[in-house]
């Protein structure tokens, strides 16, 4: 019994020694001390992890975690595979079929919430309210939103088969993928000669498109304007400055404080749009959209209607990396004409707060609510009619 005990003990000792040897072989001490901690971890995982790991994937996760470690909610990492979509977003154009979709609550299909006017999907006969059942031969209930979106994307000139359910029946459409330009600004002449200008974002073409809409509405008789920047995610500073310069009289428009301590100021020229104006905002009005409302409010050129905006006072710079990826990093602060940082004050406070319920909010988000049904637009009309 004693010999058996010592035999078992010897096996345990051998196993323990082997474990120590194995652990020592994978110790961080064995890697170049001049390399960074991340590089050492990557090497350790690549050499010692029993499951195997892809270095590109490891680096993507590490990069994303490092940017997230700043604690800044506005900074993020863009993998190389997503850079084209990122550029498309900034350019307000993309190769696709021109639909906005949302995963159904039960996961059984994608609701088509909007169809781009003049886009491939509209030309093919696809309608808002259709439910996408399958893309090519893949069921959307199985591949989900991301999978279906990836399948719909492709090269310009190629076709994709979209199977939808409409009125309980399946319909098949073969739609050509084309370059689709996002509608940056749209306009509508309301009763009382009030022009409604909806600005989707402040990326490429925003200023030019918005000015064209304003002038078109003026030619139709518009003598007052409502600018709708609800659910507007912001965009480029130079697009914002161009539009504000068009609307406001001479003075400071925008102040920027850069990461290196330097500052810059953008000014407006004397010419302006001297008509009554109202700006619509909500909690999803970000960055340039907020500063647009703040500038008009501080110049007393417009009243602001809606709900408190987000309070995004930092601006980001997209910094490319050698492998084709990039980091979108907050590199400075923006200030309103009066020198207010919206981050510090929690956004723009409307002159007239008009709350809406969740159902109304979503209908506004997807453009499914008429001006007559929109309580925030109706409040803006009352203000303009009372002037």
Q: Would you summarize the structure shown here?
A:
The chain is built from 12 helices and 19 strands. The chain is an alpha+beta fold and 387 residues long.
Can you tell me about this structure?
The protein has 12 helices and 19 strands. Helix 7 packs parallel to helix 8 (237-247) and helix 8 packs parallel to helix 9. The protein is globular and about 70 Å long. Strands 3, 4, 5, 6, 7 and 8 form a 6-stranded antiparallel β-sheet that branches. A 6-stranded mixed β-sheet has the order 10-11-12-15-16-19, with helices on both faces. The chain is α+β, with helices and mostly antiparallel strands. A hairpin with a 2-residue loop joins strand 5 (131-135) and strand 6 (138-139). The model is unreliable at 1-25 (pLDDT under 50). The protein has 3 domains: 2-79, no CATH class; 93-181, Pdz3 Domain; 185-385, Alpha-Beta Complex (2-enoyl-CoA Hydratase, Chain A, domain 1).
Give the full name of the CATH homologous superfamily of the largest domain.
2-enoyl-CoA Hydratase, Chain A, domain 1
Second rung of CATH, namely the architecture of the largest domain: Alpha-Beta Complex
- Rough outline: globular
> Largest sheet, described in full?
6 strands, antiparallel
The total beta strand count reads 19
Helix content: 25-40%
CATH class of the largest domain, anyone? Alpha Beta
Tally of helical runs: 12
* Classification by helices and strands: alpha+beta
């Amino acid at each position: 019994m004693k010999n058996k005990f010592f035999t078992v003990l010897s096996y345990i000792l051998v196993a323990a020694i082997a474990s120590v040897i194995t652990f020592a072989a994978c110790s961080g001490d064995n890697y170049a001390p001049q390399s960074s901690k991340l590089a050492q971890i990557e090497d350790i995982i690549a050499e010692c992890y029993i499951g195997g790991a892809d270095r590109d994937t490891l680096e993507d996760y590490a990069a994303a975690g490092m940017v997230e470690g700043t604690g800044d909610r506005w900074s993020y990492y863009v993998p190389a595979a997503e850079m084209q979509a990122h550029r498309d977003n900034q350019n307000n154009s993309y190769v696709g079929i021109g639909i906005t979709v949302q995963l159904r609550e039960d996961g059984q299909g994608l609701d088509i919430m909007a169809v781009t006017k003049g886009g491939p999907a509209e030309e093919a006969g696809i309608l808002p309210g259709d439910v996408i059942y399958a893309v090519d031969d893949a069921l959307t209930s199985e591949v989900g939103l991301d999978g279906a979106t990836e399948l719909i994307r492709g090269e310009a000139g190629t076709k994709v088969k979209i199977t939808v359910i409409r009125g309980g029946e399946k319909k098949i459409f073969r739609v050509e993928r084309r370059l689709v330009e996002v509608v940056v600004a749209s306009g509508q002449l309301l009763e009382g000669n009030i022009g409604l200008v909806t600005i989707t974002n402040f990326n490429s073409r925003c200023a030019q498109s918005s000015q064209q809409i304003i002038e078109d509405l003026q030619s139709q008789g518009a003598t007052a304007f409502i600018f709708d920047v609800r659910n507007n995610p912001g965009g480029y500073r130079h697009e914002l400055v161009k539009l504000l310069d068009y609307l406001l009289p001479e003075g400071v428009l925008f102040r920027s404080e850069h990461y290196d301590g330097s500052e810059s100021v953008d000014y407006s020229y004397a010419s302006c749009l001297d008509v009554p104006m109202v700006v619509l905002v909500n909690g999803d009005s970000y960055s340039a959209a907020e500063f647009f409302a703040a500038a008009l409010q501080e110049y007393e050129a417009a009243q602001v209607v809606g709900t408190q905006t987000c309070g995004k006072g930092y601006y980001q710079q997209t910094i490319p990396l050698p492998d084709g990826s990039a980091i979108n990093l907050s590199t400075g602060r923006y200030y309103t004409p009066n020198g207010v940082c919206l981050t510090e004050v929690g956004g723009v406070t409307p002159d007239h707060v008009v709350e809406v319920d969740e159902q109304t909010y979503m209908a506004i988000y997807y453009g499914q609510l008429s001006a007559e049904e929109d309580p925030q637009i109706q409040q803006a009309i009352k203000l303009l009619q009372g002037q």
